[in-house]
Design a protein that fits this description.
Layout lengths: L1 H28 L3 H5 L6 H10 L6 H13 L13 H36 L4 H15 L2 H15 L12 E3 L2 E3 L4 H33 L3 H8 L4 H30 L2 H6 L5 H10 L3 H29 L1 H8 L1
Antiparallel strand pairs: 1-2
Helix pairs in contact: 1-13, 5-6, 5-8, 5-10, 6-8, 7-8, 8-10, 10-13, 12-13, 13-14
């Protein structure tokens, strides 16, 4: 287990170094930072002085080393557009994205896992077929279209839910949360359902496929032959084996929800990191774009590492193989 953990940590470090180099390439080779920070009235001498102060005349290796060193120290630099520290900008937007992603993932799990079990145990039923058709339609519609339809129905026509923003929030230290106010929850429902619908479909179909496969294995047939009650076979033996690969997908889904919440945050004007990234693209704010890539990659690597370790802890076959 220790060797496996060390191997995964080394792999994670290599991944982060590769992402840091990608972010540095974006910062160093896409446009001229000095031209974006100065105006037409700036003299050539001032431009040259600013370039020297920023270290842009140094060799690429030196610049990359300084860039990664600043990231490790938590110094993310300043935005070209607002001149604000990027670390503070990320921290102010991070709670909104994490809360949206967590609620969306919970929706997909609470609905997707029971639906997957039901459709696996009753594959020919009318309700199961209707659920499969509905999820196929839902996964085929782009996320922004689903968001617009929900806004039109529940926000414009019925007037039940807000259509933009976070609503009321509560400050807990540096964390600004919308989970402790009724208005915050009302504002969270539509974007969370929009973001979680695609993940719900994937979860349901994965659980269904795994459950049907496990029900055809030899140990399940042996349990049936021994006269083990059906309820115990389904929910004790089959479900426990079904959830092992699902855990891996759940971890990756959370990373995907955090990374790909850009469209949902844009549709609902949700003040998270995705909306900040879109604003940085609009104004060619390269430092913010670079830091966003590194932060999202760090979330992916951290979640993937946790899932790998949890996978080994749950599945004894992997522990035996790693020990061998």
């Amino acid at each position: 287990m220790v060797a496996y953990t060390a191997k995964r940590l080394i792999q994670s470090v290599f991944v982060m170094v590769a992402v840091a180099f990608l972010a540095f390439s974006l910062f160093a080779f896409v446009g001229d930072p000095v031209a974006q920070m100065t105006g037409v009235e700036t003299s050539p001498e001032d431009r040259a002085r600013l370039r020297e102060e920023l270290g842009l005349n140094d060799p690429v290796v030196v610049q990359f080393t300084r860039f990664t060193g600043d990231l490790l120290r938590g110094d993310f630099g300043y935005s070209f557009r607002t001149r604000e520290p990027i670390g503070e900008m990320i921290l102010s937007r991070l709670p909104a994205t994490l809360e949206l992603g967590t609620v969306a993932l919970l929706i997909s799990l609470v609905v997707g896992i029971p639906a997957g079990i039901y459709t696996a145990l009753r594959p020919r039923g009318a309700i199961s077929q209707s659920m499969l058709i509905g999820t196929l339609i839902g996964v085929s519609i782009p996320t922004f279209v689903i968001g617009i339809l929900l806004i039109f129905l529940f926000g414009v026509k019925l007037g039940w839910l807000p259509t933009y923003g976070r609503g009321g929030t509560v400050e807990i230290g540096w964390w600004r949360s919308s989970l402790f106010t009724a208005q915050g929850w009302r504002s969270l429902i539509l974007p969370a359902v929009t973001l979680g619908l695609f993940q719900l479909t994937l979860t349901m179909r994965l659980v269904r496929a795994q459950m049907m496969e496990v029900m055809r294995t030899d140990h399940i047939r042996f349990a049936i032959a021994r006269g083990v009650p059906w309820r115990s076979i389904r929910y004790r033996h089959a479900l426990s084996n079904t959830m092992i690969p699902v855990i891996t997908i759940i971890g990756l889904q959370f990373g995907g929800v955090i990374a790909f919440s850009i469209v949902t945050e844009s549709v609902f004007q949700w003040p998270g990191m995705g909306l900040l990234f879109l604003e940085s693209i609009r104004f060619v704010d390269i430092p913010v774009m670079s830091v966003y890539l590194v932060v999202i990659a760090f979330f992916f690597v951290l979640i993937n590492l946790a899932v790998d370790l949890l996978y080994v802890a749950i599945d004894p076959r992997l522990r035996v193989r790693e020990s061998a």
